[in-house]
Amino acid sequence: MHTAIRAAVFGLSAGALAQQIGTLTKETHPPLSLTHCTASGCTKEQHSVVLDANWRWVHSTSGSNNCYSGQTWDTTLCPDGATCAKNCAVDGADYSGTYGVTSDGDTLSVTLKTGSNVGSRLYMLGVKGQNYELFDLLNQEFTFDVDVSTLPCGVNGALYFSEMPRDGGLSATNKAGAPYGTGYCDSQCPKDIKFINGKANSDGWVPSSGDKNSGAGPMGACCNEMDIWEANKISTAVTPHPCTKNGLAVCTDDTTCGAAGICDRAGCDFNAYRLGNTSFYGPGKTVDTSSKFTVVTQFITDDGTAAGNLKEIRRLYVQNGKVIGQPKSDITGISGDSITEDFCKAQKSVFGDTNTFDTHGGLKTMGAAFKRGMTLVLSIWDDYTAEMEWLDGVAYPTTADTSKPGVARGTCATGNGAPATVESNSGSATVKYGNIKVGPFGTTYKSS
Fold first, then answer.
1. Which residues contact 270 (CB under 8 A, 6 or more apart)?
2. For residue range 296-343, what is the model confidence (pLDDT) as tens digits?
3. 27, 133, 163, 230: which one is catalytic?
4. What range defines the domain where residue 272 resides?
């Protein structure tokens, strides 16, 4: 379950997704390499990443007046959604100083709290930096190194794919586009996105009851999402989230935005701890999260080609030269060590969850999204909605009977992931993503 990430207040304004281009801060995209592998070797390309526009300073096109501050829209600049898009400009970003984002070209470091800013979300751009890099991972594996050693309960270092528009939704009402991080969507149909499809989400905006910097509008931004990696040092999950519509789809009510709406918000997750193996992942465990390791995710098709239908998602780890397979489920009635349709059906049945994964098209729909092209997202965030207990909590829901299968997600006590606590005690928590590779099975990693 990947919940919407909130924007944070910093400098002169709260983050907002604006449509025009501001010129008060220079935009320089941090470099991040992408390596393509074949059986004969690997070739590195120099790409870059761009900060989501939801975190950026947004101001009037004629000056520096904020379009949105705290939880409030400026009613003069933004009397309605269409006018707001014309009046507001999204500016460049100070990646390291304001957002705690640094890169050496191969590894991206992302810190939870820098000054008053909390969290960030970034997208990989193509080599020319004008559009998002699109990935089709069918009959391929996707590999990266990660360091989650400083991520405590309640923090999520998430690397995933989203079926965002390649150009960021560039249009007559969105001049900024991908170079300024516009066009975000995911399977949670987030309603805290302040501009969607070139229109402000301001009409009927409701301030958040828990987050002083956020709120929700009447529109949500929905699309297929493949959560390769949602993790801290306690727990991790890999989760496909299919949707019934292609690309960015706007939802406008509780039904289409909700659990039975356009997207499968729950997904079909593989969390080893939730599946009964409590000794596999964590500090000092089989995959030792006190140091860096490599994550390999393979997307297997029914005919062994990129043209086939996605039938299985398999996970491997490599640490200290040792290849470590995902453990098999230890829950009675659920078998397997990878995500398949049979695994998902069994998991939903045993855990007593509604199988929205199946009704939204399952793995076949997820694979079709990759064929159209998915954007790589790299982020860090804390959770004002559920305090990340769906990922790492001793019980989720918190009132559920912990003796029942699927309830325990990790070792984090209830309340440990409260954002106020996390931001106060662990603001310097940093996730590092690097050595990103794509290629045929077995070409992107080595064992000793």
1. 237, 238, 239, 313, 315, 326, 338, 339, 343
2. 999 999 999 999 999 999 999 999 999 999 999 999 999 999 999 999
3. 230
4. 27-52+97-439
